[in-house]
Amino acid sequence: MKVKHILYAILFVSCAFSAQGQVKFEAKVSKKKLGINERLRVEFEMNQDGDNFNPPDFDGFRVVGGPNQAISNSYINRKRTYSKTYSYFLSPLKRGNLTIGQASIVVDGQTYKTIPVAIEVTAAVKTPTDGNNTDIIAEDNVHLVAEISNGSPFLNERITVTYKMYVSKDVSITSQWREIDTPRYADFWSKNIDASGNFKIYEGDYKGENYRYVILRTTVLYPQKTGKLELEPLTLDVPIDVPGNRRDLFGRRLTTRVNKTISAGRRTINVKPLPLEGQPENFSGAVGEFQFSVKSNKEKLDANEALEITTAVSGNGNLNTLQLPSLKVPSTLEMYEPERSENLRTKATGISGSVSENYTIVPQYKGLYPIRPIAFSYFNPKTEKYQTITSQELVINVENGPVTNAVTTSNDDGTLTDKQAVVLSSENFKYIKLDANLSPIVSEPFFKSTLFWSLLGGPFLLIPLLIIAGRKRSIRRADVQGNRLRKANKMAKRYLAEAKKNIGNKVIFYEALERSLHNYLKAKLNIETSEMSKERITQLLQERNVDETPVMQFMSLLKSCEFARYTPTSNVTIQQDYDKAVETISTIDKQLQ
């Protein structure tokens, strides 16, 4: 048993020494592309102490500084970390593709070599950089990039702009950056999706080199016009920690903080117009991928009972700006203005969700009413083609209610109209005589005849009558109070005409009376049926300076309409309610301001 434990201990120690004994020796350069008038910093770094360091011959370069040696030795959580670095500063002697050769070191009797590094030397640059300048190091190792998902979208097609900040492993950012210039997206509908400070670090490449990057912001754009549109740059002030040449007591390199302003640069988007070929006549600008539906909450109902028909578009695209096709119904169906509702979400993939319009419809008469199919057209940018979705035909069955002789027909433009049915009878052609019984007409002279003198003197006799009628008309016009009363009575009778037709039928009378009272309020107070609560009606009438007595009478009439359907009522009471309604509406109409 003891032998087994000893073997485990030996195995553990050997693994520990093996892990610790892994030697890492590599070459690092400040840049892989530079001008012939710039300098290059080369570092050879190892994680264990070695002997007989042998640098490469630096063919094509002149050594202008170094070698500088730095050692870092630290213990963190009882774990030893060691680093030894030899650094050189080089100046290229010629243009072209050069190579930093292999350096070698001997560790525990074994030789380790670095991997050769390729360097491209270009023509002289206007402003040469110094590989030891902290400002230049910060500028070369931190970059802000605006990545665009589609540089040539269609009008109203979604594009996504992703702002990424790339940071090389030679520098670090330990403090929060500051936004100093936020882009304004003219000619675009825009929505920013910020990371809210919870930035995730990714590994990636920037111009062929290994970098770390974070996604600062994602912006969803929908272009609203065609042509070349410019995106303003995002500009940040970033504190960057750059390693310098000084080191602490433990040999670790001290860092210097440099504040740099970095920008993503201006970008140009070429927005293409939507193709005219194959564009449907009912196309209203929807771009994306959508589904379309038309649904009714009832298929059978009675007259004067409300139903709801909903038109809805769902999917991904410019849902926030699209227009839904209008619903067309027969004129015998009373339809109110639709209520629009939106349930939208904005993500990097664009706007998704649904948009709907809810129509309230009240049939007036018994019968079958077809709701013709309506079509919704949109442009799919993936297939670059127009697509049309047509709804199913709905049939509204009104089972109980008054009967009308009107029939529903369809016009050439798709609208529905009601026309009176034509009834043919054998009596229609009775006036046509088949056997003529003609007799000669004896003509009398017109001059000095009775008709002649009547036509001649008639106008003179009409003059006094016209004068009298004119005076009465002037007196009637001057009677302002009387005119208002007559006008109010006329308005009341017009609204109550339908109720009067059914005065012998209690149920139909009170339904018509209630509907006429509501229609009167809608015309006078400009409110919808859904807003007609008793408190709301009382408030609006009092605000229009109507006395309390007619207001109470009006409320009493509405209450009578509600209870009269379920309680016994005599013809006398019905007549009294009708007269009371005429008087109340006339009074209110006269007092309304």
UniProtKB/TrEMBL annotation:
Residues spanning the membrane: 451-469
Keyword Lyase tagged: no
Signal sequence, renumbered to the chain: 1-21
Cited InterPro entries: BatD
Keywords associated with the record: Membrane, Signal, Transmembrane, Transmembrane helix
PROSITE patterns on file: PROKAR_LIPOPROTEIN
A Pfam family hit: BatD
PANTHER family named in the record: BATD (PTHR40940:SF2), PROTEIN BATD-RELATED (PTHR40940)
Name of the protein described by the UniProt record: Protein BatD
Organism of origin: Patiriisocius marinistellae
